[in-house]
Write the structure tokens for this entry.
Amino acid sequence: MSEANIKMPSETGVNAGRFKPGNHAAKGNPYAKKCAELRAALYASVSAEDVRRIVETLKAAALAGDLKAITLLLERVFGSPQPLDLIERLEVLEEKLRENADHENH
């Protein structure tokens, strides 16, 4: 197939004309610009030292026994807790996938 015959996804299928200028049905998220402005203002107003001080305050509260601070700190460091049976469930799913692959190959 020559390069001249290759069509870009935007020229075919469901995307044809969707994001082209003049398509008033696809204006995008009306709040995205405002959200980006607010996020930029937040980043501009908080320094690395501010973040360090905030983390130290959170850490001190956690060490003092504040359960909400403990939970927030540990979730930010280790991520949200996963179900205890997650590994077992994954192993069952992997076995089913292997069985399906075996059936397809025979």
Helices lie at 32-45, 48-63, 67-78, 86-105. The chain has a mean pLDDT of 84. Residues 29-105 form one domain. The two ends are 35 Å apart (CA to CA).
